[in-house]
């Protein structure tokens, strides 16, 4: 378990890098971020060049990425792909893929059932994954199998949220390499939901910070607007939502495997709605400037909106939670 001081140092290092490289998404930026800081290998076992940490440490990085609206492929690579490979139990795949992920020379992504119409026949993969997180190495769950395949074609998607690159991947009967005995992908998806929740907390917290700063600076009737009771109530509600979301996200990231479905569903539901609410209130508190293209407020609202669909909307998480606990 990483100490509190070490987590604080990790957070400071990640924030410093992202502040110095705003919006950077090229291979050089990823290599520096993943390799030099060592953050891509946090959940990679030590024998494969990683730090051997858990999702609790990864969540710190995710929160800072969400705060900065960074387009770096950390979620698909360091969370989803690493989790899928680790869960597969395939030593050959671990030896082949994890060192490159850990040192920042490889990015990867995972396609889940329901996100694409894929078929696997005779060791060949066919179908189209219309909206997939960006990554060089493509892993896909097809039935009860986890396979690695090279797409026949990649087409960048034009999306509302430009901070989360998505691509359309086409597989035209391409050879597929089976990875381990994958079984159900629910565990990997739950880890993705928990990590995304940490990202959402970072974005919501930044919305709150921005709103507070503006409420202190903007004057109306000779007073800062933050002195008005209506604005105070809005900011207090935002603070409650952000801190509650942080508790939900970090509990989901720290939960043992047998409790992961429950806490991931809670975090997926609550953190999604908290981010949407915080992003919306930030625009309202900023007033006229908050609805302009020149201000970042709309970018956080777009990220919150796209995040709400990435692993399913809040209603889907609540429905899954009901099935689990009732």
Automatic annotation (TrEMBL):
Instruction: Read off the InterPro entries from this record.
Output: AcylCo_DH-like_C, AcylCo_DH/oxidase_C, AcylCoA_DH/ox_N, AcylCoA_DH/ox_N_sf, AcylCoA_DH/oxidase_NM_dom_sf
The cofactors named for this UniProt entry are: FAD
Which keywords annotate this record?
FAD, Flavoprotein, Oxidoreductase
Where does the Acyl-CoA dehydrogenase/oxidase C-terminal domain lie?
Answer: 195-325
EC number(s) reported in the record: 1.-.-.-
A matching Pfam family: Acyl-CoA_dh_1
Enumerate the GO terms in the molecular function aspect. oxidoreductase activity
Origin: domain of life: Bacteria
Acyl-CoA dehydrogenase/oxidase N-terminal domain location, by residue?
A: 4-104
| Entry's family note | Belongs to the acyl-CoA dehydrogenase family.
Q: Supply the name of the protein.
A: Acyl-CoA dehydrogenase family protein
Q: Which organism is it from?
A: Microtetraspora glauca
């Amino acid at each position: 378990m990483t100490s509190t001081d070490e987590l604080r140092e990790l957070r400071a290092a990640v924030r410093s890098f992202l502040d110095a490289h705003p919006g950077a998404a090229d291979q050089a930026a990823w290599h520096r971020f993943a390799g030099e800081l060592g953050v891509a290998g946090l959940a990679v076992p030590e024998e494969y060049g990683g730090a051997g940490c858990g999702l609790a440490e990864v969540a710190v990085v995710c929160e800072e990425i969400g705060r900065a609206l960074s387009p770096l492929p950390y979620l698909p690579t360091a969370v989803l792909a690493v989790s899928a490979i680790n869960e597969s139990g395939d030593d050959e795949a671990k030896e082949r893929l994890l060192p490159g992920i850990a040192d920042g020379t490889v990015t990867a992504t995972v396609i889940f059932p329901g996100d694409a119409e894929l078929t696997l026949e005779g060791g060949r993969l066919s179908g189209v994954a219309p909206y997939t997180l960006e990554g060089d190495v493509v892993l896909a769950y097809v039935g009860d199998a986890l396979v690695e395949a090279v797409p026949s074609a990649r087409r960048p998607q034009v999306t509302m949220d430009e901070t989360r690159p998505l691509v359309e991947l086409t597989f035209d009967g391409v050879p597929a390499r089976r990875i381990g005995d994958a079984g159900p992908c629910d565990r990997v998806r739950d880890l993705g939901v928990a990590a995304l929740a940490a990202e959402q907390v970072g974005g919501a917290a930044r919305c709150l910070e921005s709103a507070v700063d503006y409420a202190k600076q903007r004057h109306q009737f000779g007073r800062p607007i933050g002195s008005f009771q209506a604005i105070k109530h809005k900011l207090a509600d935002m603070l409650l939502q952000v801190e509650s979301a942080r508790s939900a996200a970090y509990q989901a990231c720290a939960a043992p495997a047998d409790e992961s479905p429950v806490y991931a569903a809670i975090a997926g539901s609550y953190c999604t709605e908290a981010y949407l609410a915080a992003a919306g209130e930030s625009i309202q508190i900023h007033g006229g400037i908050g609805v302009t293209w020149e201000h970042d407020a709309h970018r956080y609202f777009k990220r919150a909106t796209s995040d709400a669909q990435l692993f399913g909307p809040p209603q889907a998480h609540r429905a899954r939670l009901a099935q689990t606990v009732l």
